[in-house]
UniProtKB/TrEMBL annotation:
SUPFAM superfamilies: HAD-like. Pfam families: Hydrolase (PF00702). It comes from the Bacteria. This is Hydrolase. It comes from Methylobacterium platani JCM 14648. InterPro entries: HAD-like_sf, HAD-SF_hydro_IA, HAD_sf, PGP-like_dom2.
Length: 205
């Protein structure tokens, strides 16, 4: 079974890194002086994040719209500061990746604007040594998970067929989308669960 898999494709937030959106909102509130609930509503209840994730807005247009929505001209440095405050590496999962990458290719596909991947060394500095340049924002493919177009365009960029990929995501709808696109998939719940999934496939890490 191990020979069936050529590449493991990981989600980022709440798989490789813990992500706390509320902490991000609170940091934005501290930076801007605006109420946290108003920021949350303006960004996450407005559909803006999907426009960024799906590539409907490019990085600079997304950042401009982010500031316009909350009524404060958020700089790149401020956006990065808040995004960085919201994440922390999952050391157990990253240790698995460190061992796994000696056996199989690894890559990332995250529902995010290219603003994140362009600044990944600032936001998630542990990732580049593990994944190299194989860190993709869904926005790069002009479609967001769980749209099957997103997975297929990503795999075209990676030059690997869907059936040879194991996709790992914490959201069930994204796992279902991956399977609909022809990928094998694992619904991530914990590092131990992922380790068991890999072991069942002959990958003892």
């Amino acid at each position: 079974m191990v020979d069936d898999i050529e590449l493991i494709l990981f989600d980022l937030d709440n798989v490789l890194y813990h992500y706390d959106r509320r902490r991000r909102v609170d940091r934005l509130s501290e930076i801007t002086g605006l109420p946290a609930d108003d920021i949350y509503a303006a960004i996450w209840d407005s559909g803006l994040e999907h426009l960024g994730d799906s590539g409907a807005l490019g990085p600079q247009a997304y950042l401009q719209a982010f500031g316009d929505r909350i009524g404060y001209p958020v700089s790149l440095e401020e956006w990065l500061e808040a995004r960085r405050a919201a994440v922390a590496p999952d050391d157990q999962v990253l240790a698995l990746v460190e061992r796994l990458r000696t056996l199989k290719a690894v890559a990332i596909l995250t529902n995010n604007s290219e603003l994140l991947t362009e600044n990944i060394n600032v936001i998630c500095p542990e990732l580049r040594p593990l994944f190299g340049d194989r860190i993709y924002a869904a926005a790069s493919f002009r479609a967001a998970k769980p749209n099957i177009v997103c997975y297929r365009r990503c795999l075209a960029a990676l030059a690997v067929k869907p059936s040879a990929v194991l996709f790992v995501d914490d959201l069930s709808e994204n796992v279902a989308g991956a399977r609909a696109a022809g990928l094998q998939a694992h619904h991530f719940m914990s590092a131990d669960g992922l380790r068991r999934e890999l072991a069942a496939r002959g990958l003892d890490v």
